[in-house]
Amino acid sequence: MGIPNPSDEVVQVRHGDVAGEPTVVTISCPDKTGLGCDLCRLVLLFGLNIVKGDMSTDGRWCYILLWVVARPGRAMAMRWDLLKDRLIQLCPVAAPFGLDNHHLAAAGLHLHDHDAPAASPNIFLLKFFCYDHVTRVLCELELTIRRVKVSTTPDGRVLDLFFITDARELLHTKSRREETYDKLQSVLGDSLTSCEIESATEEMSSCLQASTLLPHSAVEEMFNVEVGEEQSRSCGGLSVAMDNSLSPAHTLIQIQCGDHKGLVYDIMRTLKDCNIQISYGRFYASQNGSCEVDLFAVQSDGKKIVDQHKQRALCCRLRTELHRPLRVALVNRGPDTELLVANPVEVSGKGRPLVFYDITLALKKLHKRIFLAEIGRHVVGDREWEVYRVHLGEGDHSSLRSKIVDGVTNMLMGWDDTPPS
Questions:
Q1: Mean pLDDT: which of 17-26, 305-314, 383-392 is highest?
Q2: Half-sphere CA count of 298, side-chain side, radius 13 A
Q3: Rounded to two decimals, what is the model's pTM?
Q4: CB neighbours (10 Å) of residue 26?
Q5: Which of the 8 DSSP states describes residue 279?
Q6: Does 106 score more than 60 pLDDT?
Q7: CB proximity list for 281: less than 8 A, separation 6 or greater
Q8: Ranges for the ACT domain (predicted)?
Q9: Fewer CB within 10 Å: C terminus or N terminus of the chain?
Q10: Which segments of 46-100 does DSSP mark as H helices, in order?
């Protein structure tokens, strides 16, 4: 790929000439394992859909093009400058004088800490009374919800207790806290009667690790899902195949499937968790909601995927993740109803962005009030899951229960009222 020009921008954002055309995001930076996953996760966090993508790398330098559009009905104002800054923060720093980062690392010199084990982020407790839910505001502020208890009083007031971490890792500073206060006040206005942010105590933080057991029936329904080759034929044209004949050095992974919100992220996180590295990739989503993905990939040792068992396991894992990237169920909790939504946690420890926001938005459209909500992590089998438990009050008729499951699922998958893109 050659040595990049030091004056070249790491991230460039070019808007379409005509309204409605995709915005093109160009990223040119040193490569690192899992970079594609991290970039796609951030794009999803900012409420954007990837309609086309192209990426290539020689293992040292990567070049990525993403054509993105705002999701239909997106309530949050798009902050392109902030997106650019956050993308730049994710990219490794280029070595000076055209030197290679791999050679510097071998010599014990590190320009950045991207590859170092991430320290556990500081946890803060956000407490406030208001007359509305604020998940949209927290998403805009890049505050990640680790656990929440939301209690709604009969007069409509909401007491929110959020255990949060800051994606920017600045919430311990006065300026960042003031930004949070001001943003909440500007959106909620007079309905916000009080607001506090404090560092969570060690006892509070330890409580995040503990979570009540999931109902056995819910575990059976939500997690015992594995999509084999035969089953995938009935999953809306979902197809995952591998071919070692087209490249002497790479395995071609071909995916054909229906589109959904965060599709590229789901592919990239799965490959990252399976230690598969992409050398060249191409993604395209058509207007009719179908997607085609071609990926030339290698194992972590730089070799092709030739072991038949590994091929079958990876294909099965991809089919399962693309068929049901999130799991939704409605269960009885005594006389009341509880909504359960689960998404897999990356090996790096990161959960899927915007899940709680989408849940609350879907329930708002269905005129369902949240009485209590908890977010916890559970290990089921050999995987960790982030599980959202939403207490909806007294049980509903079966027809309404079906509407709740379908409404929440469609919102999470980007199928609500508009075709996915």
A1: 305-314
A2: 15
A3: 0.83
A4: 16
A5: E
A6: no
A7: 36, 53, 54, 55, 56, 293, 294, 295, 296
A8: 15-92, 337-414
A9: N
A10: 80-90
